[in-house]
Structure formats: structure tokens, C-alpha cells
Amino acid sequence: MYPVQSATAVDLLSELEALWGGERDFFIRAANAAALLFWRLPEVNWVGFYLRDGEELVLGPFQGKPACQRIPLNRGVCGRAARQRRTLCIPDVRHEPDYIACSPETRSELVVPLLSTDCLYGVLDVDSPRQARFTSQDIALLESVAQKLLSGADLERLRRYYQL
Fold first, then answer.
1. Reported pTM
2. What pLDDT is recorded for position 8?
């Protein structure tokens, strides 16, 4: 088990690259990304992926308490980030009318769409029990993680599986 500790973005990205090695399977890459981010980012209570399947997002690899299994694209912060194809940082989910409360402890949320060559594969979702937890550096880090996750994965296999 990883000790919970903060790390620089460069350290985390280097660790991810080392973990992934030459692995091309998206699910293996996403599972290791979720685990590493969960243990290395301070003050997070959930890190995971939702993958696009038609008009909804379905739960993928994650770390944390059990989560919502399916989110329609027209609901929630994850659905909105997917629809708008842009990163959303919510400093206080209690004031967010679109928020789907999978965990009552969550106070802030950061959602990054997984996009490659204009195809939406899903989202990376990170939750924190601390209000206004996420910074511009966190946004840049998680956008880099999403990009690197996709750039090294076998996306054709993922497209076939979800018929994207």
C-alpha cells in the first residue's frame, strides 16, 4: 500500500509512466492511475473513471467507497463535463444543483473529460472532503494524466467494446 503523501506533478506523472510501462490495455492503465492518484494526492476520498456507453457514463476502475454505477450524460457534474467536453472544477458541491451525491462526505469535485481525436471516452473524476480542494496545478496534473492515459492505450479496443 502506498503511504498517503503529496507529490509533485512531475513525480506523479513519472510514477504513472513507470507503472504503465508498455501496457496498452486501457483498463489496466486506468486502474493503476486511480490507485496511484488516490494514494498520492492529499485530501481526496474518491478517484475513478466513468466510461461513455451510449448516452450514459458507466463506472470504471476507481479507488474509494462504492460509487454510482451509471450516470446519464444529461445529469450531474460528470455528465456535464462529458457533454461540454471540458474540465469542471466545483469548489463546493453543496451549492451545485447538478451534483449527484454519491458520497455525503464530498465537498469539492474535479472532473476531466477523456478526449482523443474528438472522441469522448469518458471522464476522470476526483472528489475531496475538503471544500475548494483543487487548484490550477491539480487541474493541469489531472488533464495530463487523462491525456497520457489515452495516448498510450489501445483505443480501438475500447471503441469496439463501447461501440464509440
1. 0.93
2. 82
